[in-house]
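pasting for the record
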Amino acid sequence: MKKKLNSGCAGILISLLIIVPSIAKGQSERAVEKKYLSELPKVQMAKTVQKYRMTAIYTNRDLYGNFTGKTMVSGDYTRGLPGDSSMWNNVYISSSNNFSDAFPTGTKQEYMENFRYIPSDKMMEEKSFKSFPKSVENVFARNLIWDMMSADIFAWNYYDSLKLNVPYIIPDIKGEFNMADIGNYSHNKIVLCWRGISEINGQLCALIEFNAIDNKLEITMDMIKTKGTEQYWGSILVSIKTKNIEHADMYSGTIQEIEVKGMKDKFLMKTIRELEIRRIQ
């Protein structure tokens, strides 16, 4: 009888050793889900100066996939300056006609050095770029500004509306708008989705994905005219403690019909853009 009792106790003990950790694990998982995956925490954005390095690589090909050239645009972006202003420094544009070659140092865009502004709708007006040269290359510099503003909008403006793995269509960004008098852009729709929690730079972050498909693009400048469509997508890591952007990536594909002044025939070109926003302070 004693032997059977001991065996029974041993069986109960073994069962407890199996069940208790399982219960604890289940409770721990539910606690994590409740804390981090039920909703994004309500936090105030930290009022500190932040610096980022943005790099965008444009790779051009014809419709058959043949490489025709590439351009790299990079710059240092500072936000959180007095008056909620932002500033750019060390903006370089570099090009290469060989796919496998590294980019040369490139040309510093002096008109962008200490270029300061308050991010707002006014940055879609031509007068905001009165210090920029009248050249095709300055479109790349403008894109740095507009892409950074887009990242800010996707990270912050709809933060409280996002639910885990539920696509959210931005209601107030749709239709055609003017790009500082150099052309027009028309969004079909922009979709955001909070996909989960990740970690970077020692910060727990909300992973927010975005995409915008079948957008129309038209540029008209002195030397060049283009017309085509663009798709873009990417992800942003937003700290759930400070609400600052810690990292972002964006990719886009554009197909355009291009007319260059002095050239007899129009031609078609496909451009792939790979963009990274990396926090450096």
